[in-house]
Each structure stands twice: as structure tokens, then as C-alpha cells.
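Give me the 3D structure for Glycosyl transferase.
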Amino acid sequence: MKFGHFDDKAKEYVITTPHTPQPWINYLGSNDFFSLISNTCGGYSFYKDAKLLRITRYRYNNIPVDSNGKYYYINDDGVIWNPGTMPSGTETDTYECRHGLGYSRFHSSKNNLEADLLAFVPVDAACEINCLTLKNNSNVAKNVSLFSYVEFCLWNAVDDSTNFQRNLSIGEVEVHGSTIYHKTEYRERRRHYSFFTVNAPVQNFDTSRDEFLGAGNGNAFPEAVRRKKCSNSIASGWYPIAAHQIDLTLAPGEEKTFVFMLGYCENPADNKWEAPNVIRKAPAKALIERFDTAEKAMAAFAELKTYWETLLARFAVTSSNEHIDRMANIWNQYQCMVTFNMSRSASYYESGTGRGMGFRDSCQDLLGFVHLIPERARERIIDIASTQFPDGSAYHQYQPLTKQGNLDVGSGFNDDPLWLIAAVSAYLKETGDYGILDEPVPFDCKKGSEVPLFEHLNKSFHYTATHLGLHKLPLIGRADWNDCLNLNCFSSEPGESFQTTGPSEGPVAESVFIAAMFVKYGKEFKEICLRTGHEDLAKEAESAVADMYQAVLDAGWDGEWFLRAYDSQSAKVGSKECEEGKIYIEPQGFCVMAEIGKEEGLAEKALDSVHKHLETKYGIMILQPAYTRYHLELGEISSYPPGYKENAGIFCHNNPWISIAEAVLGRGDLAFDVYRKICPSYIEEISDVHRTEPYIYSQMVAGADAARFGEAKNSWLTGTAAWTFVNLSQALLGIQPEYDGLAVNPCLPKNFGDLKIKRRYRDAEYYIDIRKPDGVEKGVAWMEVDGKKIAGNQIPLIPGKKEYHVTVQMG
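Predicted structure for Glycosyl transferase (811 residues):
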């Protein structure tokens, strides 16, 4: 069952009913100012940091769900409704929500009154613009009262939701014309404020929530909207909001457009005030003036659309498969941008109040983003590396505003250091910018500790190389990529953290997964060393990688698949010897990606075991059999009900690893089948089962053991986005950035057909025509560049050349 459809030409998903199984959301913003918006206008806004600079308030786990946002109430002769239907819930005569790239548009009507609402964040401004047009489609005049409504958050979203004895006394606002300024705490340490304005005179306003809603009333039918009159209230303490009242008369066929804006401003510390207790409004006035007419707002919207057209043109495919073209050209790249901006910090599932930017997460997100805006990827690498500790280990998270390590979970996740090598190698392959390796980067953000970025990579490599267990495999620490596999942290009491209870580092527990990472990214480190004149270090890296490869063969192979780990007692995890959790997905994918066991014939056995034991119609499960009781020695992974999350759920993040691994072996049919099963476009038809957005990847799909097999959870912010784009663009379509240029090496199903790819790479345009005979899954028979055949499958880089025309014959 579908609840909408793709409009590929407009690059939109069109939702045709407000009654989706979950809120289906979109992200507005591409730099510093961000908003989340659902298909019923729920959501919230923040500047840079969803925890520390939250602008509007949102209530998680609320009933009804998703019932706080930027709302517009229409009172048309006593009938109260909203363009997105919430929060009144009044059924409209027509409804449509179009989620596009950085914008959402709502089109609805009731009783011959039509509403069109466009919401977007301009490319280079700290504000959200809402253009609302009302049109009278009846044959009589309509007298309409229009009300806007936002509820301000008191900045720190954690404090806002917990510290009521203080917060219910600090709310402050100012009102100047049609602009309502939120200035809570501005008088003390803060020098920033927000505002909500409209480009028209207002009859009345409210800034007190209780006055607007009515004491004890919800937000479905505010008292002010019922009586068609705001009270010009000024919030003092209590709950500050911004609400405008605009009364208008529309003649038959007449329409009027209003531009509302939610903005954020900062003042210099020594220039905060216009007068005693009167905030300096010059930045706000300048921002308002930029967008204070419909013409100016729509020009900014056109600029936003051009911005996205330009970005997405950096990689575009034309084939006979609409699902591939749709995901590669629009939605997968779009989600990669969102995950790069947000990491795992702000969604409808991650509240943005605890987790900041993940060290591991941001490094992986960069893999799918680096081709879009390489200069921003460069900045992110420096930010991430700056939080690393001098020994090569790392904070697991950091706050995007302060860029300081987040102490909530600290460090000790021993896969983290190697992801930095993965990110930097991807950046170097994309850009050829070896200068980044000489950039001075501190440890733990401490001035005076700066060393070249290269030394951070060296520390990352050697941290793993020097933290080995009894089987010469890497020590797992608190956890590796799977944060719920806690082999050193023994949590036995309610309320304890699975990941931080007990030691972060044990002398025994080891990870085969980190071993595979070390082999894969150790090879990249060796290559970087060779290209920067560190020959001795390259030889050391080569030797260490070879030793790790052998350690995996000696101690990480279980006969039919790769082991997952060794626990604190040196017992096997992910082995046929285990009662539950006999086989895990992660080492099968990553070991084969690292080509461990390829020559020995083990790689094919491992992937065959994946298809035999883990594959389902909705994707590949993370492990089998599911854990049915709590295992103290394994931790959180065994705390979930069977089939959910890390306990035998279909964890979408690592399904691409299996697809990439199949491509390593040249098995195109199998690689594509793995890709297809979790691809949103392919599974749109089962949206009633899947429940989350059909245009975006989710973190998890309930596995075969679950009561709700096939139901997805936690959409948008997942490493699935970057890894599926790497899988699609590099492993399947075969466009692979290398240190010395683009290589072309597709791996596709036997009957996929020909395709064309346009790729922007190092300031040049590549037009690649791939001819694929039926029956061929992988292999390049010959390749021509600008009409001349070349040896191999890597396009030679020619300095100054701006355009390449490439023909590839598979065979």
C-alpha cells in the first residue's frame, strides 16, 4: 500500500494523505540553520546544535504524535483548519504534501478556500521562510482570520525539558510591529536571540502560550483562534510563543500571499543593546529586509533549487532502471547531505538532546558526501581529528557547536580511530589534496598540541596495532561498530549503561570486525605513507596488515563463516559453537571487502553462509539465531526482543557491506539483490508494512523473529545513507575514485543493460558510457577515453583537462 508517489521530474515525493503510518519528514537547511518538518507541519528548528541552540520546542513521545511545529490556523466562518491538517486534525477537502530537496510544500483546501504553504531555509541565511498563499475559490467574498503559531524553546533543549523550577521564570520577549523577538536569557551570558515575523500588518498578536491557547487547553483549537482575537499578551516568565493574527477579506477568485520568517541572530558581546533591556535588532532587520516580499522569497527559493541542481549534477546516472536513477540522482545523495550535517544528533527518533556528532558516524557519513562539497568534507575531517586523544583513541561523540568531545559516553570504542583513516583516504582520492595531511591539528582540542594531520592517522593506525589480544586480534574496548556488543562492560543493575559500566578496556575481548577494518584501511594508510615519503612507515604498515590478515585466518575463521569476536573469557562470539548468535553479518561483509580469504576460497563460503542463514525478503539480518535471554557477557545486544535492532534485526547500515563484498567477488546478481531489498524506491509498495518514509533509508527493519517483521524504525540519520551510495556509485555502477584518477569497474546483474554516467571529479566533467552485454556481471573488456583505447580501467588524469568522454565495454 502506498501513501503517495515519486515525482522524479520535480525531484519530490508527493504525499497524498496526512494519515501516513509515521510522520514522514524532511530536512530544511544545508549549512547552519536547520528545521525538521513533517507531512503535517510538525517539527522544530535549531541553529548549528540541536541541543544547545534549539529555537522551537518539540515534544517527543507525545500524544497525539507529532503535534508541535510551525502552525497556521485558518478560521473561515467558524471552521478551523490547518494547511497541513495538524494540530486541529480537521479533515480538509484536498491535501497534498510535497517533500523536495531542502523544502516542503503543502497544498490543501477546505470549503472552497485554498491554502498553499511553502517552507524552506535559504542557502545562506539563518532563517526559515514560510510563504503562505490563501485563495478564495468560491463565488462569494470570504472573511478569514489567519493565525500563526510557534512555541519557543529556552535554548538548551535538555534544560528546557527538565529544569522547570528555573525555566518557568525566565521567558522574555519583545514585540516591534509584526516581529516578535524571543530574548530569554539574553540579559546574561547569551548574545543571541530568535524572532518570528510576517511581512504584513497584524491586527493582534500573542506571546504568552496560556493566553493564546487558553489555560489548560491543547493546541488543536486555541482559544484565540476560536474567538478570532489574540490578546496582545507579553510573556513574562512562563511559556513564550509567537502568534500573529491577520484578518483579511478575499473576493471571489482573489488570493493573498504572506511571508513568515523564523530567524536567528547574534550580536557582538560589546554591542548587545539598543537601550536598557532592549535588544539590538539591526541584524534581524537586515535579515528580514532580505526576504520581506513574496518576490524576494521566491528568488531565494529559486536559488535553493539551483543549489541542489548543481550539487546533484556531480553524479548522475541514466539507465533503464527508474529505481536506480531515482536513488542515485536524487534521494540517496540528498540523504547523504542530511546525515553529513546532522550525524545522529537530530531527528524524530534522535532528540538532539544527548548525542552530538559521532566520531565514527561522521567519518562514515563523509564517504557518501565527499564528492558533493569537498571543501566542507575537509573542514569536517579537521574537526573530527581535533577531538582525537594523543594515544590515537577518540571521543565517541562531540558537540557540533563547541566542537569539543562529548563526555556522555567518553571514549573506548576501538573501531573509532580507523574510521579517520577511511575518511581521509576517501577525501584524498576525491580531491588529490595532500596538503590536508600537513594541516596542524590539535589533540583533544587543546591549543599547543597541534601536529600535522598525518600524525593523527599514524596514531590511529598504531593504536589498533598496539592494542591486540590473545589471538593477535584487536581489542574491542567498550564496543566496536556494534555499540550493543559490550564484551567488557558487565551491566547487571537497572539503570546502568550497557556501554560504560565496568572497564572500557579488557585484556582479552577481541574484535574480528576491527581486524577486517585494520586490513582494509591499513592498506590505505600504507598507500598514503608511500605517497608522502614515509617509506619506512609504509613497510611497517604492510607488515602489520599482513600479520592481521593471517591472524584472521588463524583465529577468525569458524569453518563456514568468520567469527564475530572473542569475549572477556576468550570464548567465541558468532560461532557454530554458540547456542544463540552463531553467525553475524559484520565480519562477513568487512572481511570480504578487505579481500580476506578471497584467494583461499573462504570469502565465497562466508557470503554463501550469509545468504543461507541471514537473508530474508526484507534484507539481511544482523545475526542468527536471535538471543532469547540476557547474556551478561555480551551486553545490550541480548537485551532487545528477538528481531529488533542489534538482536537479529535487519540493520540496514551493514547490508551494503554484503553487496559490496559480493561485488568484490564479481557476483553481480547477488550484489544487486542485496541492494534492492532495502532500497526505498523498490519497497514503496509496502509502505504500510515498512511504515517509515519510502524515499529515505532507515536504520533498522524488524527481522524474521520480530512480531512486526518488515517494519522499519529510525529513518534518515543512519550510516546506511553513505554506505548505500558508496555501494551504488562505486561497487555496482563502478565509478571509483582512486589516488591517481577515476577507475571504472561495474558489477551489475546479468540483464541490467547499458547505462550512462556523468561524474564531476577534480574540476572536470566525465561522461561515461557503459556498454553491458547480457550475461556479463563484472569485468572491463576495453575502455576508450576521448576515442582512444587505453590499458586497464583507470582514466588517466591530464592536468588542466576539463572534459573526458569515456566508453567502457564490459566483458
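Residues 4-309 form a domain with the Beta-galactosidase; Chain A, domain 5 fold (CATH 2.70.98.40). Let me know if you want a second pass.
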